[in-house]
């Protein structure tokens, strides 16, 4: 099978290309010059580089390589919409027709242009289904009752935000919403939230859009997420099972299960949550950190 991958930043496109190579699939990588790692060149059957503004070139590459299915793998920072990148004539026309420039509006418009050219935007997790977070316990400890209450509250906020395509993540402390993610990304949102809570423990809730597909903007969790949680005093991470990618899962869980190095360590309830908790010592005081993945159909 021959696929195309539009490669953004992070490990997502790297892992997708590695999986395709093991399966013997032919994949054409189209790297976003401002975002993607050069590592994709060695993993793809063929590799091209485009700027964020070069929609026409992307289409020309697909036609040249006879690619009719293409996946969007990896993050492209939303703030780049307002950067100095110069769009080509096709993207100028597309942007001028948009009422709003949020993710849904922009990518749905791109998908329509691609479809008009005989190119289907495919499920971005197509090659990485094994990395989607399952329901059930990932590690050892359930969230404490206060963590559980914050998770339940945060899920309601995240669900409401998802209806407006604002962001994927919410930071909660003591049943109060401290920060919501916008264009800055989850890590920056957590750091901003940490500056507001004066050392109080926070919980991070990552919600998937309540769409019927996984074509784009799929929530991703990896070892770096755990590092930022530790840095910001975030004790719990909740995410939608079956709709969140766990990148470098072995490393993530190895850090989670480490006893003293600050990684996540334990887990949440079996029926509706996946959870990971972390324990570390700071100023001779043991603290616990938890991460959870929930059924997206649950409240």
Topology:
Elements: E1 2-7, H1 12-23, E2 26-32, H2 40-43, E3 46-50, H3 55-64, E4 69-73, H4 89-96, H5 103-116, E5 120-121, H6 145-162, E6 169-173, E7 176-180, H7 186-194, E8 202-206, E9 220-221, H8 223-232, E10 234-240, E11 245-246, H9 249-257, E12 261-264, E13 273-282, E14 285-294
Parallel strand pairs: 1-2, 1-4, 2-3, 4-5, 8-10, 9-11, 10-14
Antiparallel strand pairs: 6-7, 6-8, 12-13, 13-14
Essential attributes:
single chain; 2 domains; 7-stranded mixed sheet; alpha/beta; Rossmann fold; Cytidine Deaminase, domain 2; 299 residues; 9 helices
Structure description:
- By secondary structure, the protein is an alpha/beta fold.
- The protein folds into 2 domains: 2-129, 3-Layer(aba) Sandwich (Rossmann fold); 132-294, Cytidine Deaminase, domain 2 (3-Layer(aba) Sandwich), CATH 3.40.140.80.
- 31% of the residues lie in helices and 25% in strands.
- The strands form 3 sheets. Strands 7-6-8-10-14-13-12 form a 7-stranded mixed β-sheet, sandwiched between helices. A 5-stranded parallel β-sheet has the order 3-2-1-4-5. Strands 9-11 form a two-stranded parallel sheet.
- α7 (186-194) runs parallel beside α8.
- It starts with a strand and ends in a 5-residue tail after the last strand.
What overall form do the CA principal axes indicate?
Answer: globular
What structural category do the secondary elements indicate?
Answer: alpha/beta
Would you tell me the overall average pLDDT? 81
Question: Which series of helices and strands comes N to C?
Answer: EHEHEHEHHEHEEHEEHEEHEEE
* Number of domain units: 2
Beta-strand segment tally: 14
